[in-house]
Amino acid sequence: MFNQLLERIALSLEQHQIPYMVIGGQAVLVYGEPRLTRDVDITLGVGPERLHDLLSIAESAGWRLLVEKPEEFVQRTCVLPLQDSKTGIRIDLIFSDSPFEQQAMDRVRLVEMGKATVRFAAVEDVIILKLVAGRPRDLEDVRGILAKNPEIGRGYIRDWLAEIDRDLGKDCGQAFDKLLRSLQ
Predict the structure, then answer these.
(1) Listed residues 77, 102, 121: the one ending a domain
(2) Which of 34, 53, 82, 174 could anchor a disulfide with 63, C-beta 3.0 to 4.6 Å?
(3) What is the CATH number of the domain that holds 4?
(4) pLDDT in tens, 123-146
C-alpha cells in the first residue's frame, strides 16, 4: 500500500518538476528497523511560492486537503497536510529551501518502485532530520539506523549538526554522540 502511494507521489511530483525527498518513517524503513508508520513525509525542494502548483497536483492525484485555509496554514507551518483518498494515508508535503535541505536533495538514494524511481533522503540526512526533531521515537529511529549502518558519514553529520545547533540553539550534536556511545 505505501509503495504504491510512494510511486504515485513520485510520478506526480516528477511530472511537475518538483524536487523532493522522502523523509520520516518511510525513510527509516529503508535504513533502520522495521516499524509502524501511518503517514508519508515529503520534503520539497521548493518554497511556499509553489503552493498553487502543489494544490493542483493534489487535486489531480486525489489527495484531500486536511486544512480549510491552505495558504494561511502553509505560511505559518511550511507544511501542506493531505490525505490520499484511495488509502486514507496522510501525506505531509514540507516546503523547504534551506541550505541543508538543498544539499540533501542532491544526495538522495533512488529506489525503484513500480514505474517510478522514488527519491529517499540519504541515511546521514535522515539521521540529521531525526535528531533535529528530537522526539523519543525519532531518537529510537536514529539508534536503529546507526546499529544497521555503522559506516555512515559521521563528519558530514557532525558538520551539519554544529551549524543547525548554532542556528537553532539546539544540542543535536550532543544527542548524536550520546547515541553513538550507547551502541559501543
Answers:
(1) 121
(2) 82
(3) 3.30.460.40
(4) 999 999 999 999 999 999 999 999
